[in-house]
Specification:
Elements: H1 2-17, H2 35-46, H3 48-53, H4 55-79, H5 96-114, H6 116-121, H7 124-145, H8 151-162, H9 173-188, H10 196-199, H11 204-207, H12 220-224, H13 232-239
Helix pairs in contact: 4-5, 5-7, 7-9
The structure holds protoporphyrin IX containing FE.
Protoporphyrin IX containing FE binds next to helix 4, helix 5, helix 7, helix 8 and helix 9.
């Protein structure tokens, strides 16, 4: 958890400090600042760019992320003393979140195997991540339906960890495998492409306003070294 939290914060800090010296919003882009949150939200909620570019990949990715979201919301009962209001009904979804996740992951994996263009750009870690997620979803679904785990024990265990007062771990083997794989995923997260979850918000092609004519973009180093770019100061004055 420490690797996960510190690693993610460090990466986010690095993203925030990385200069975006060029005006590169991918058009059509919002022409006013108010449109940017709408655009970014459309990427987060409906994966808009992916939908426009590849429907099969969109479906696979969307199924996986939707299943993941539902499964994680269902897990809230392990991390809070009482099930948060409005979350109880998620139990009626039974094992479907896990299955939806697995359907998406299976399709993503298959595409890397059978579509040439996908296979060509695939590297070992792409397969590793998909297999790790498939293993987590499978062991979770098994822990729920075939090798019943005592969820009151799981809750006590998790609450103990959260309070830094650990109690004995549930001994159910499927849970131990599920939990260990999750820890592996969390430790690997900051070093992997899973960081796209945060990176999306820092993507200049998505978060910039399309106003290069109205407001010239001047990079900080152009202001610091105006002799390097003679027009920089002039442009700064014009834009302020
Ligand atoms: C500390 C973290 C986690 C703990 C303690 C945990 C524990 C559990 C337990 C006990 C179950 C069985 C649920 C039941 O019997 O009702 C389960 C199911 C499941 N888990 Fe986890 N899990 C964790 C994190 C994750 C993560 C990060 C993922 C996905 C990447 C995940 C995916 C699933 C799935 C798909 C199921 C299937 C059951 C369902 O549809 O609700 N789990 N988990």
């Amino acid at each position: 958890m420490a690797i996960f939290v510190i690693g993610v914060l460090f990466k986010v800090w690095k993203y925030a400090m990385t200069p975006a010296p060029l005006k590169i919003p991918q058009t059509p882009a919002p022409v006013g600042a108010g449109g940017v949150p709408v655009r970014v939200l459309s990427e987060v909620v409906i994966f808009k760019s992916l939908f426009k570019s590849n429907r099969v990949l969109w479906l696979a990715g969307y199924l996986f992320h939707a299943g993941l979201l539902l499964a994680l919301l269902k897990h809230f009962r392990f991390f809070f003393p009482a099930v948060p209001a409005g979350f109880g009904y998620l139990d009626t979804l039974e094992f479907y979140p896990g299955l939806i996740m697995l359907a998406g992951l299976g399709l993503l994996f298959l595409m890397r195997l059978v579509v040439d263009r996908h296979m060509f750009i695939s590297v070992m870690t792409d397969y590793f991540l998909l297999l790790l997620l498939i293993a987590i979803a499978t062991t979770g679904t098994f822990a729920k339906h075939f090798f019943r785990v005592d969820i009151t024990q799981v809750k006590e265990f998790m609450m103990g960890l959260i309070a830094f007062k650990p109690v004995d771990m549930p001994t159910q083997v499927m849970f131990i495998i599920h939990f260990s794989l999750v820890l592996l995923l969390l430790a690997y997260f900051p070093f992997s492409k899973l960081m796209h979850a945060a990176g999306l918000f820092f993507s200049p092609t998505r978060n910039q306003v399309d106003n290069p004519r109205e407001k010239r973009l001047v990079t900080p180093w152009a202001v610091e070294k105006p002799e390097a770019i003679p027009v920089a100061e002039e442009a700064m004055e014009a834009s302020t």
